[in-house]
Amino acid sequence: MGRQTPLPRAAAALLWGFLLPLTAAHEAILHASGNGTPSPSKDYCMLYNPHWTSLPSTLENATSTSLMNLTTTPLCNVSDIPPDGIKNKAVVVQWGTCHFLEKAKIAQTGGAEALLVANNSVLFPPSGNKSEFLDVKILIAFINHKDFKDMKQTLGDNIVVKMYSPSWPNFDYTMVVIFVIAVFTVALGGYWSGLIELENMKAMTNTEDREMRKKKEEYFTFSPLTVIIFVVICCIMMVLLYFFYKWLVYVMIAIFCIASAMSLYNCLAALVRKIQCGQCTFTCHGKSIEVRLIFLSGLCIAVAVVWAVFRNEDRWAWILQDILGIAFCLNLIKTLKLPNFKSCVILLGLLLLYDVFFVFITPFITKNGESIMVELAAGPFGNNEKNDGNLVEATAQPSAPHEKLPVVIRVPKLAYFSVMSVCLMPVSILGFGDIIVPGLLIAYCRRFDVEIGSSIYYVSSTIAYAIGMILTFVVLVLMKKGQPALLYLVPCTLITASLVAWRRKEMKKFWKGNSYQMMDHLDYATNEENPGTAGEQIVQQ
To answer: Where are the coiled-coil regions (predicted)?
Structure first.
């Protein structure tokens, strides 16, 4: 009998995996030129909201605009406009004193072409409730205050700028990488779960082996009630993260480090144990311990620690996060068990509603009109603290709002050799939940296949997952907006599994779970009463 892991422990390990869909950044280039022969120029990064203002995609199509420095003026009243005026200027103001939308309205009144907000913190796209400033049409963008100081020192006081946003191709190689990672993880996790199920079934014919596996295996089985409780906890945690992000983000980072290091060890240890050589052991407190597993545990801890220390290094830390994330997803898909298709439908259905609600519905509820899911995906926009729904100035020191939740697979776009390299490396991301949730269904299909001596459910559900991922990418390209992947993955996988069960006339058995799954879920009660039944099933296989 496997030991039932308590719900809070399992929920804590899995919780953040269901938070995040695909998302994207809004970078643009500020091309600044000074006086001189030849004219010196330099590119800087700026962030803007493309839903508010559009920019040309090339430097040639961008309009030249004179830059005016008003960082010493709050620009919160019309009287703050200098006597010389700001007509046809790109005005640079300092963050703070009043809302940047108020500054933009005043700048537009003075005839300015654009408002550039110099921020001491890490850059973020302009966000907020623009309903009160619908008449504001000028460009609003954020630049780093250090970049503005460098601009003045390098190019002087008479600066002309051009602003443009290079377009990315509709097809992005990161989609292929994310697709391969996602399909590989769910397929391998499901297959691994099936192997363990087969070993458990074989062990049931031998009382000694069965008792040994009871002590060795740890897993958590989702009952329908457990599924509902878990989804409620997810919703509560999402809201808590939204309001208390700057504290809870560090808790999530710590949990991820511990859970991912353990998961990486479990994944690699399963491979190492298959290697027959190098099995040097020693005895400690009556237990035989392999030396190579000690070194392996040290390696896994080191990987997690290195990621934790350098997690904000955009150039290479994503590789470690993806490795840890893949191991984390694999371990959960292998460990967590849905006893029947009924539990699969409840879990995937509720999490689909959860995903859609926090992506599409919450923008109508939040004061700034932003999706809670998308804000948490990249860290709350604004590196600002929330104060009764208003934006307040943040310091230049690293703080929690700069941190991102480690709940996604991240793949940087090919920007290193382009002009966009002046910006933080843009990435495509896929939430762990978009891998784990369908992966649990695929794992159940594989275990069901093991019991009936087939592979049809596992293969068909894996193919359906791949089709769902492709559909997600297609909609992402067409709508040019982050999508909740579960919106496409859940119907594809559930409908496919249902059709296969209906076509094979096994829906009743598939819905309720096979005898071994139910026996596992019911604490092996049936097996204890009828020890010969399982053995007969194995022989029939």
So the answer is: none
Distance from the Cα of residue 4 to its chain's centroid: 28
Q: List, for residues 259-269, the tens digit of each pLDDT value.
A: 999 999 999 99
Specify the amino acid at residue 131: S
Which positions ≥6 away from 89 have C-beta within 8 Å? 65, 66, 67, 68, 111, 112, 113
Q: What share of the chain is helix, strand, coil (3-state, %, to 5)?
A: 55, 15, 30
Report how far residue 347's alpha carbon sits from residue 470's, in angstroms, rounded to the nearest whole number.
22
Catalytic residue numbers read: 355, 434
Question: What is the three-class DSSP state of 536?
Answer: helix
For the chain, give the number of residues.
541
Query: How many Å from the N-terminal Cα to the C-terminal Cα in the chain?
Result: 22
Residues ≥6 apart with Cβ < 8 Å to 498: 341, 507
What is the CB-side half-sphere exposure of residue 299 using CA atoms within 13 A?
A: 13
> What's the confidence (pLDDT) of residue 200?
80
CA dihedral 417, 419, 423, 424 (to 10 degrees): -20
**Parallel/antiparallel/unpaired status of strands 27-33 and 41-48:** antiparallel
Supply angle C-alpha 327, 332, 338, rounded to 5. 155
Please say whether the beta carbons of 249 and 405 come within 8 A.
yes
What predicted TM-score, i.e. pTM, was given to this entire model? Answer: 0.70
Tell me which residue of 470, 202, 214, 184 sits closest to 333, measured CA to CA: 184
> What is the spatial distance between Cα 149 and Cα 87, in angstroms, rounded to a whole number?
23
Instruction: Return d(Cα 76, Cα 103) in angstroms, integer.
Output: 6
Contacts of 384 (CB under 8 A, 6+ apart): 124, 391, 392, 393, 394, 401
Up-side HSE of residue 63: CA atoms within 13 Å toward CB?
A: 10
C-alpha span between 255 and 223 (Å, rounded): 25
Q: Which residue positions in the chain have pLDDT lower than 50?
A: 1-25, 215, 381-401, 416-417, 516-541
How many Cβ atoms from other residues are within 10 Å of residue 388's Cβ?
6
The one-character DSSP state at 360 is: I
User: Residue 514's pLDDT is what?
Assistant: 62
Residue 125 preceded by cis peptide, ω within 30: no
Buried b (16+ CB within 10 A) or exposed e, 464-497: bbbebbebbbebbeeeeebbbbbbbbbbbbbebb
Q: Angle at which helices 173-203 and 531-540 pack, to 10 degrees?
A: 120
DSSP assignment of 220-271, as one string? EEPPHHHHHHHHHHHHHHHHHHHHSHHHHHHHHHHHHHHHHHHHHHHHHHHH
C-alpha span between 39 and 106 (Å, rounded)? 32
